[in-house]
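Key result, reporting period 2: structure in, sequence out.
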């Protein structure tokens, strides 16, 4: 029985990947860089959700390179969450991850675990070049490029989350400008298809796409007011990073945005109650 290691387990993508494999009865080791003092309510909610599983073990990031795993295990590295999350000391996080990869490689390339990188489809290669370079030559490594992924627990720095939380116009515009608007996926549609994607494709570089046309803009209409949505509704060039794998979506844009709004409302009420 293999173990899944999720680097970024209390973030957005990482949290859902962790939750998915725990629900399948698998063993998961969660690694994270979250600052408990900056957002304790969010971290506590996520810890309550996944930490109660007997199959879950939390491991600190600064001890990552001490972790001994086998070639049968799979390591998910959530670069997408690093890129979209509001975090400091990114260089330290990247350095710890690279040190861990290099340690695994010292056991021999045939003995390395299965590395899976989750990458944003746009603007990220230079930021993560150290990790990309480290997994070169590792036959079992895959890189999955993701479009905008949305749903409950979406990162605060992303545009839908900023719009739903009614942040200032400048913050929303900055988030939109920094985001790939050519496509989108609801988080559980992505995660529920993940095992099948990894099993069916032998390619090292994969880009996921939605089977819903104009997915990002359709979501935007339910998030932003009409004027702002129309400003950014112009056609966005598609980016192709590798083998395109289409995800069959079970959640339509309106339903997905509604679920994200309901989650935010519940979380905001919880924060308010705790302060009182």
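The corresponding designed sequence is given below.
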């Amino acid at each position: 029985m293999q173990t899944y290691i999720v680097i970024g387990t209390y973030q957005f993508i990482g949290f859902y990947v962790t939750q998915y494999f725990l629900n399948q009865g698998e063993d998961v080791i969660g690694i994270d860089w979250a600052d408990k003092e900056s957002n304790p309510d969010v971290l506590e909610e996520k810890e309550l959700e996944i930490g109660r599983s007997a199959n879950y073990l939390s491991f600190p990031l600064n001890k990552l390179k001490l972790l001994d795993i086998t070639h049968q295990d799979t390591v998910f590295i959530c670069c997408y969450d690093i890129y979209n999350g509001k975090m400091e000391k990114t260089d330290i996080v990247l350095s710890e991850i690279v040190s861990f990869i290099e340690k695994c490689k010292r056991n021999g390339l045939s003995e390395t675990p299965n590395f899976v990188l989750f990458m944003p489809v746009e603007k990220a290669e230079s930021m993560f070049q150290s990790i990309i370079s480290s997994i070169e030559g590792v036959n079992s490594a895959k890189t999955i490029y993701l479009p905008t992924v949305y749903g409950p627990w979406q990162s605060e720095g992303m545009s839908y989350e900023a719009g739903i939380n009614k942040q200032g116009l400048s913050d929303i515009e900055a988030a939109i400008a920094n985001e790939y608007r050519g496509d989108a996926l609801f988080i559980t549609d992505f995660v529920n298809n993940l095992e099948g994607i990894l099993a069916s494709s032998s390619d090292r570089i994969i880009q996921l796409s939605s089977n819903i046309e104009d997915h990002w803009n359709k979501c935007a209409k339910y998030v932003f007011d009409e004027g702002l949505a129309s400003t950014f509704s112009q056609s966005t060039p598609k980016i192709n990073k590798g083998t395109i794998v289409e995800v069959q979506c079970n959640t339509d844009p309106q339903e997905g945005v509604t679920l994200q709004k309901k989650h935010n409302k519940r979380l905001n009420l919880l924060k308010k109650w705790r302060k009182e």
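Residues 1-145 form a domain with the Rossmann fold fold (CATH 3.40.50.720). The radius of gyration is 18 Å. This case is discussed further under Risks and Mitigation.
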